[in-house]
Amino acid sequence: SQTIHQWPATLVQPVGSPLSLECTVEGTSNPNLYWYRQAAGRGLQLLFYSVGIGQISSEVPQNLSASRPQDRQFILSSKKLLLSDSGFYLCAWSGHSSYTFGSGTRLTVV
Amino acid sequence: DAKTTQPTSMDCAEGRAANLPCNHSTISGNEYVYWYRQIHSQGPQYIIHGLKNNETNEMASLIITEDRKSSTLILPHATLRDTAVYYCIVRVANSQEGSNYKLTFGKGTLLTVNP
User: In chain B, what residues touch A43 (CB-CB under 8 Å)?
Assistant: First the structure.
């Protein structure tokens, strides 16, 4: 069966520090991968999606970037975090029908 | 993807059926209706989806009107653990275009199941 792993579960980082969140999928090949963010009290916002290795589409201009170095690995990064980057970050994968989400990373930038 | 309209919040008594409505009057012929829910501090969870016919699985039933402009998600016997934000989303499924895989979430309905 397919599983999605996302870590860490929580993270507290100072303003200006770098960020790297990793997401891996098991049990499937060539999945579509997604990064979403949910700010406190807000809805889910799609940040990036990828349909294959090295293929990244950005949905909104922001302080973050994404990479897909391997088929089942999706990384969210920042060189210098801002306070506004705080939020709940969710990785997801999709086959041809439904999405499966990871358990999320709660990032607090202080 | 077509836009959806849902009530901001609803309450339901434990053990009773919860009926969550969704309007999607601009839905296209090739768009499916999907329902997800998000329990607090967790990732969204897929519930059910359908195109034209009513659907049922172990979690819920989906009733889609004949004109497909609205639908209702039914949780037949709501429990306290069903308290969550429920999202109704319409989108094209089974498309080879990467952009058509995007899942766009609205604000959803906060369902509170009361003891």
Answer: 105-108
Contact yes or no for B97/B64 (Cβ under 8 A): no
Q: Is A13 on the interface with B (CB under 8 A)?
A: no
Quote the tokens at residue A1: 């069966």
CA neighbours closer than 13 Å in the CB half-sphere of residue A59: 17
Q: Which two tokens stand for residue A3?
A: 């599983």
Phi, psi dihedral angles at A81 (to 5 degrees): -70, 145
Rg (CA), chain B: 14
Distances (CA, A) of B5 to A6, B10, B12, B80: 31, 14, 20, 25
Spell out the per-residue pLDDT of chain B, length 115, in tens. Answer: 568 999 999 999 999 999 999 999 999 888 899 999 999 889 999 999 999 989 999 999 999 999 999 999 999 999 999 999 999 998 876 554 544 567 888 889 999 999 9
Query: Distance between CA atoms of B85 and B35, rounded to whole angstroms?
Result: 11
Beta partners for residue A89, in sequence order: A37, A105
Place of tokens 């029908």: A97
- Judge contact between A4 and A23, C-beta under 8 A: yes
Chain B contact present for A57, CB below 8 A: yes
